[in-house]
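Comment thread on ticket #2218

A.B. wrote:
> Attaching the input chain for the structure job we discussed in standup.
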Amino acid sequence: MAADEEPASPLAAVLLCIGRQRPADAAVGSTITKLVAEYACPVIVLADNDELAHVLKALELGAKGYIPTSVQIDVCIEAINLALAGGIFLPASSVLAMRRAIEAGNDVNRPMSGMFTQRQEEVVNALCRGKANKIIAYELNLRESTVKVHIRNIMRKLKATNRTEVAFKINEMFPEHANFQH
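C.D. wrote:
> Ran it. Output below, let me know if you need it in another format.
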């Protein structure tokens, strides 16, 4: 071994069991960071929960995996193997929670989501911009007859008698609507 080479780590991986503690706790976070810096091998956290915030914090601190104690032992072994191969293990429940969080975030960008379907909302946005049915159909890749059905359903929901009244009521109900138009 050359003088400037570091000795290889005697460990293949570090499995840190934190139980009910959280990676955001100062002592736990410090331990994860120290292990990542000290050993030239993957650090994997084993914990009693799989909350998305805890998983993300452990990864931010440099962990190469986060294994909830609720998983089967064979999954745990494969998670360690994945980290050894250079991958990062996340529990499926956390990935699904991430997806739900992203979808919930998308609803923030859809202020009318409780009132209209996504497609109806797209038609409403086009109506409020004064677009004709033929243009709406082209832009949304719909048939003009489908646009007419959406408009009829939108008018019924708003108790509006024409397109202008739809735009007026939407702007009245959602004053911030102009900020959400695409």
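A.B. wrote:
> Thanks. Noting for the ticket: The chain has two domains: 14-102, 110-180.
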